[in-house]
Amino acid sequence: MQIVSLTTDYGSKDYYVAELKASILTNKNDFSIIDISHQIDKFDIVQASFYLQNSIKSFPEGSIHIVAVNCNYKRKSEYITFEKNGHFFIGPNNGIFSLLFDDLDESLIYQVESPDPENSNVNTIFSHAAAYIGHGLPLEDIGAKIAQFNKKLVIQPVITSNQIRATIIHVDHFENVVINLKRDLFEKSKK
């Protein structure tokens, strides 16, 4: 059974998560759906990339990861899909995937169009792409190559001759603080 993970800013108060899951299972009913989080802060693609980056290593190859965060980021939002390291990713072209991967081959990123342009929403688009991938169809047939891949910059620590200034990127449920300074950079920069 193929796994579909969900990372969204939909929250749990409304029906949006149920609508997304129902749409996915309507298109292909043998998926196993795993929720990474639906409590991503509204529109926070940095937080979403952090959650996904720390989760995907636990998933088997062939998993499909749907990211529904800041989906309506402009008037005519674009949705994309690609394969990376044996995993498939579906989500908005709003820069989130550039925060997750710094070495994506943009020529292998495809735009996902709605199967029914007259009656569609983002969940329909995501479930269509998941079913397409789940049936083993080639990504290059799902849609045109993306014209422009939206990129965002990752917040980097500031290193001077006498200090290292890092940024808090996450505080977990247990109040552990995660900063954007990796151990190897700290060891290299400390005096």
Tell me the layout of helices and strands:
Layout: E1 3-8, H1 16-27, E2 32-37, H2 45-55, E3 64-68, E4 79-84, E5 87-92, H3 96-100, E6 110-111, H4 122-134, E7 158-159, E8 164-165, E9 168-171, E10 177-179, H5 183-189
Describe this structure in words.
This protein is an alpha/beta fold and 191 residues long. It has 2 domains: 139 residues, 3-Layer(aba) Sandwich (Rossmann fold); 32 residues, no CATH class. Helix content is 25%, strand content 22%. A 6-stranded mixed β-sheet has the order 2-1-3-5-4-6. A two-stranded antiparallel ribbon has the order 7-8. Strand 7 and strand 8 form a beta hairpin. The termini are far apart.
- CATH class category of the largest domain: Alpha Beta
CATH fold call of the largest domain: Rossmann fold
Enumerate how many helices there are, as a single number: 5
Q: Helix and strand string, N-terminal first?
A: EHEHEEEHEHEEEEH
Q: Termini distance? A: 51 Å
Largest sheet: 6 strands, mixed
Helix content: 25-40%
β-strand percent reads: 15-25%
Q: Report the principal-axis shape.
A: globular
| Classification by helices and strands | alpha/beta
State Rg. Answer: 18 Å
* Low-pLDDT sequence parts: none
CATH structural architecture of the largest domain = 3-Layer(aba) Sandwich
Total number of strands:
10
List the quaternary state of the chains.
single chain
